[in-house]
Amino acid sequence: MPKTNAPTKKSDSDGPAKPGGDLGKDAFLKLLVTQLKYQDPSNPMDNREFLAQTAQFTTVEKLNDLAETQQSLLSAQLQLGASALIGKTVSYTDTENKVHSGIVSAAKFFTGAPPTLRVGDADVALASVTEIGTPAPAATSPAAQSPTAQSPTAQSPTAQTPPVPAPQAPAPTQNGQRPGQPASS
């Protein structure tokens, strides 16, 4: 977008004032209309120059929209990644460059900021995570692991189903032969 050294008044829809005198879209359109309004009638603005300016404006506006969309997608991806770490063991480096590890119990999301993970008593930035693993299985006694020590409700559904009987041969027919056998002569 064109730059100017003159201070520009920003409208509410134009967002906050930008450093360096960048013109927002409303200010750019006002400047373009003013330029057309006060042009010299004996030497009007060239159509190609006018079309080039509007094309540049449209391109910059679409690039800004694309950047906003990509930022939203990145934020959603970070939130999804942080959510997937709940229940996992992570290692992370703190502000003093010490490595810690623990199980992620929660993920926190803030508008305009990257997500943080709750590991033990610490809130850890997602970018500080250096390693991800699955939590170690809980230690149990050998008696609790044997199938006979489990209660009937704790057994798997396959352990509760009765065995299937083996298929039996079909009964002989009236002439003494089994179905599917050739007749004897």
UniProtKB/TrEMBL annotation:
Pfam families: FlgD (PF03963). Residues 1-23, 135-185 are annotated as: Disordered. Residues 175-185 have a biased composition (Polar residues). Residues 135-159 have a biased composition (Low complexity). The keyword Electron transport does not apply. InterPro entries: FlgD. The keyword Ribonucleoprotein does not apply. It comes from the Bacteria. Keywords: Bacterial flagellum biogenesis, Cell projection, Cilium, Flagellum. Residues 160-170 have a biased composition (Pro residues). Belongs to the FlgD family. This is Flagellar hook capping FlgD N-terminal domain-containing protein. It comes from Dactylosporangium vinaceum. The lineage of its organism: Bacteria, Bacillati, Actinomycetota, Actinomycetes, Micromonosporales.
